[in-house]
Write a structure and sequence with these properties.
about 270 residues; TIM Barrel; two-stranded antiparallel sheet
Length: about 270
């Protein structure tokens, strides 16, 4: 996997971690552009390779009345506009084989949600688009089992695979990250830590997922110390009123300080 093969990815020679960051879901053009502009400014200053993240639709919802999106094509066009405006790559998650071809026409990286990491037809369909495929480790899967998920991508002839760890289920309503899995999974593909989803508290009786955003900094620093190649952070300028996953998103106003600290920590880690 070569980061430099992701179109428009900047700062690939900086020896920094790379970042996938943005809102959980695309709620509209103004919010997406506002978040992208802020993150681009920060990552350019810190020389962090940056991919804008935004879901064009949300298929995995606890409740029937949960927000699922503003319309597939409308959201995908916004992702394309973000890419063209700021000259950065974009990533979105897909849920069906049909999604793969549709989303590939608009974005640079296709993401396989954790609950779908073992869906062979979906992973293969994503790989066959030729796009980089980011596979989230299922909450129910071991680090060792991700070798087979990556193989499904590479055996199509696509070498552009990434693994993202988003924690493992710990009881019914909590997640735990086992950092012992980082060096294991790095044998298969670059490893990203999904900082914000790792702090989710799913399966709440209200049907709305909870979270522990106060620990985002702790989790991110632990990931860098453990040697992850990249970080995944969902961020919003108004998490309390975000339409999806607001309970575990990072307030956008806190991102610059966090990334500055993480770049400093990465420099120390690189000396070992």
């Amino acid at each position: 996997m070569e980061l430099s093969l992701i179109p428009q990815l900047k700062h690939t020679k900086s020896n920094n971690f790379f970042l996938l960051a943005g809102p959980c879901a695309i709620e509209g053009e103004e919010m997406a552009m506002r978040i992208a502009e802020k993150v681009v400014t920060i990552t350019d200053e810190l020389k962090i390779p940056y991919v804008f993240k935004g879901s064009f639709k949300k298929a995995n919802r606890s409740r029937l009345d949960s927000f699922t999106g503003i319309g597939d094509e409308k959201a995908l066009k916004i992702l394309r506009k973000v890419s063209e405006t700021f000259q950065i790559p974009t990533v979105t998650d897909i849920h069906t084989e049909q999604d793969a071809g549709m989303a590939a026409a608009y974005v640079d990286v296709l993401q396989i949600p954790a609950f779908l990491a073992r869906q062979t037809d979906l992973v293969v369909a994503a790989a066959k688009t030729g796009k980089t495929v980011n596979i989230k480790k299922g909450q129910f899967m071991s680090p060792e089992s991700m070798k087979h998920a990556v193989t499904k991508v590479t055996e199509t002839g696509n070498e552009q695979a990434i693994i993202t760890d988003r924690g493992t289920m710990f009881g019914y309503q909590d997640m735990v990250v086992d950092f012992r899995g980082v060096p294991t999974m790095k044998h298969y593909a670059p490893v990203v830590l999904d900082v914000t989803h790792s702090l989710q508290q799913p399966n709440q009786s209200s049907g709305v997922t909870g979270g522990r955003p106060a620990l985002i900094g702790t989790m991110a620093k632990a990931g860098i110390a453990a040697g992850v190649d990249g970080l995944f952070i969902e961020t919003h300028f108004d998490p309390a009123n975000a339409k999806s996953d607001g309970a575990n998103m990072l307030d956008l106003s806190l991102l610059e300080k966090l990334l500055t600290d993480l770049v400093t920590l990465r420099k120390v880690v690189n000396t070992f």
